Amino acid sequence: MTAFAVDCMGGDFAPREIVKGCLLAWEELGIKTILVGQAPKIEEILRQEGFVGRLEVVDAPDSIAMNDPPLSVLRRKESSLFVAASLVKEGKAQGLISAGSTGAVLAVGKFVVGAMEGVERPAIGVVFPNLESRTFLIDVGANIDCKARHLLHFAVIGHTYSKFILGVENPRIGILSIGEEEGKGNELVREAYTLLKNSQLNFKGNAEGRDIFSGGFDVIVCDGFVGNIILKASESLGLAVVEMLKRSVKKNFLSLIGAFLMKPALMELRKKADFTEYGGIPLLGAIRPVIITHGKANAKAIRNSIKVANQFLTLGFNEKLIKSLNEICPQEVRN
Amino acid sequence: MTAFAVDCMGGDFAPREIVKGCLLAWEELGIKTILVGQAPKIEEILRQEGFVGRLEVVDAPDSIAMNDPPLSVLRRKESSLFVAASLVKEGKAQGLISAGSTGAVLAVGKFVVGAMEGVERPAIGVVFPNLESRTFLIDVGANIDCKARHLLHFAVIGHTYSKFILGVENPRIGILSIGEEEGKGNELVREAYTLLKNSQLNFKGNAEGRDIFSGGFDVIVCDGFVGNIILKASESLGLAVVEMLKRSVKKNFLSLIGAFLMKPALMELRKKADFTEYGGIPLLGAIRPVIITHGKANAKAIRNSIKVANQFLTLGFNEKLIKSLNEICPQEVRN
Asked: Which residues contact residue A277 at a Cβ distance below 8 angstroms, ignoring those fewer than 6 apart?
């Protein structure tokens, strides 16, 4: 039976929220997980939740902290993250979920689970809500210094993700730049523009920063340096807006009542902006699903990440990605 | 007497809002401007406002459209933008303000007004509100492909701006990257990190995307490609949040009442996020103040841009910048 290895020691609310997320996935979605981490702690939580013996626990005494150097995980073979990744590599689990240090998850994703054939650089993408529907931005941090052909690969991965995971019929692909016209942007973008234009993708040209949130593109590609900065700036801007609003509201009693009455609208907005709704961030191009969940993940976010991993398998995402690569990328820009 | 040349034909609401902005600057701040553009149109507005003969008008029959190639302004010598820049170059005006095409304003700023001695690449910065106070991000679009020493120059410009325009005693300088630790980031950032560390700046290391809005840095430097994408993404995210909130509110009557009661708080937030409050974006390092105002500028934004240009002069910003460059930049990274 399909089961996913979950790193129960990674994330701000580990192990409790992680374990509870696995239980939610089992109860609500019928998806099985292998709980990897300090067995006594995990079993104690299972006991409290009345779940003993219903999900497998694999002991891993060590765990990677958020501020450990990401690559150190490759040496720490008793860490929950390394053990969980090894279960995937050995075929005992069909995918990996972790809310631990992103860099460390990327490291085991690339070097323990491994890249699928035909993909030079696995990448991570994130789904942003926009005024129309959603924008998939890729890469948001897995690859810092990129070549033009990597951006083409990201576009193919994004196309496949948008089509088969987000259900967009003919995804509109853009490349993140400044100015709409061909020829605008830095050297990397100008070179990648030509590759994208000559591919079989539904390429719509340069996308500007504003297009991420206003719509018009289903997939926007960029290098992981730019993408990561955008991701973090956007999360923080959202939080800052809410915080500034809170502070303003507190100064005025009528505003406080107003905020109360507006609550349903605010909640709906919050839901749109809530990354937990969309599950974790997948490392795309790994040989099996690897889902990087936000460090602040609660049980619901973990449940949704497990759901995403399962979608990948049931949809045969990697097979579809190979097909896309074959159809879209000319041989000379393949690895 | 000091007077600033204002391009009255640039911007979405030109010429009316631009002319009215000049009148506000004169009435409210006592700052004189020279109104450059199609004289009949400008004089008609002055008549309507009861201001005939109180501000000088210089005729320029041509005007640059938003979608004209930016560099074309250098050939179109009868355009309002070129004529206004020439007035500055000839010393008839002490600075330039335009809400026209950013690329075109950058072009006349660099090639007609010209760069000051010691600055290789004039840059544009923008002030973002953050939870503590404000973050000055530089460069946000004037220089696409940069060398490490350019980022050092931007840092010195940002330091000077933060200290003398924003009133920060000892500005905390950061370099935009992914991850806080030294060694994180792309090649450009890693190289610039060393230059910044060895300078006399109050350098606080790498800043992440989130630091723009959460505070902790007074100045954050980046290349103009990354900065421009951040700027546009942030503006658009802010608008998208407000739009999504509006749509949610309309679905529910109590929310509508709530929104009404929250108005003062929302207005305060809006004011914080309102770029018109901060005036335009200065091209820093030009021989005289060049202020690039948002295309959607209304009279108030123009007034504030004129105010900013005037501040530059009265504070002797360029003299202070030369002093900073001499103190902070080792000779080998000067131009």
From this structure: A271, A304
For A89-125, the pLDDT digits (tens) are: 999 999 999 999 988 999 999 899 998 877 888 999 9
What single-letter amino acid sits at B334? R
DSSP notation for B16-59: HHHHHHHHHHHHHH--EEEEEE-HHHHHHHHHHTT-TTSSEEEE
Cis peptide before A15 (omega within 30 of 0): yes
**What is the total residue count of chain A?**
335
Q: Which residues pair with B292 in a beta bridge?
A: B98, B281
Question: In CATH, which superfamily holds the domain spanning B121-251?
Answer: Isopropylmalate Dehydrogenase (3.40.718.10)
Full-model pTM: 0.82
Contact state of B213 with A240 under an 8 Å Cβ cutoff: yes
Q: Do B248 and A265 touch (CB under 8 A)?
A: yes
Q: b vs e for A275-285, b when ≥16 Cβ sit within 10 Å of the residue's Cβ?
A: bbebbbbbbbb
Superfamily of domain A1-119+276-315, CATH level 4: Isopropylmalate Dehydrogenase (3.40.718.10)
Instruction: Count A/B contacts: CB-CB distance under 8 Å.
Output: 199
Which residue in this structure is represented by tokens 């990274």? Answer: B333
d(CA A312, CA A202): 23
Rounded to whole angstroms, what are the CA distances from B178 to A233, B126, B192, B212, B332?
11, 20, 14, 13, 28
pLDDT value of position B275 = 47
**Test the B interface: residue of A66, A232, A277 with most B CBs within 10 Å:** A232
Interface of B with A in 268-297 (CB under 8 A): 268-269, 272-273
Give the torsion through C-alpha atoms of B177, B183, B184, B185, to 10 deg: 50
Contact of A183 with chain B, judged by CB distance below 8 Å, is answered with no
Helix residue spans in chain B (DSSP H): 16-29, 39-48, 80-89, 102-108, 148-164, 187-197, 211-214, 224-250, 253-261, 263-273, 299-314, 317-328
Domain formed by A120-251, architecture: 3-Layer(aba) Sandwich (3.40)
d(CA A153, CA A143): 12
Of A237, A252, A264, the CB nearest to B264: A252
- Average pLDDT in the B259-277 region? 59
Q: How far apart are CA A54 and CA A33, in angstroms?
A: 10
Tens-digit pLDDT profile for residues A208-221:
999 998 889 999 99
**How far is residue A293's CA from residue A298's CA, in Å, rounded to a whole number?**
10
Give the whole-angstrom CA distance, residue A220 versus residue A218. 7
Class of the CATH-defined domain B1-119+276-316? alpha beta
Taking an 8 Å cut-off on Cβ atoms, the answer to whether A209 and B266 are in contact is: no
Domain boundaries, chain B: 1-119+276-316, 121-251
pLDDT given for residue B295 in this prediction: 87
Three-state DSSP class for A152?
helix
Contact A255 B269 (CB under 8 A): no
Nearest CA-CA distance, residue A133 and chain B, Å = 11
Nearest of B130, B192, B118, B195 to residue B160 by alpha carbon: B118
Shared fold status for A1-119+276-315 and A120-251: yes
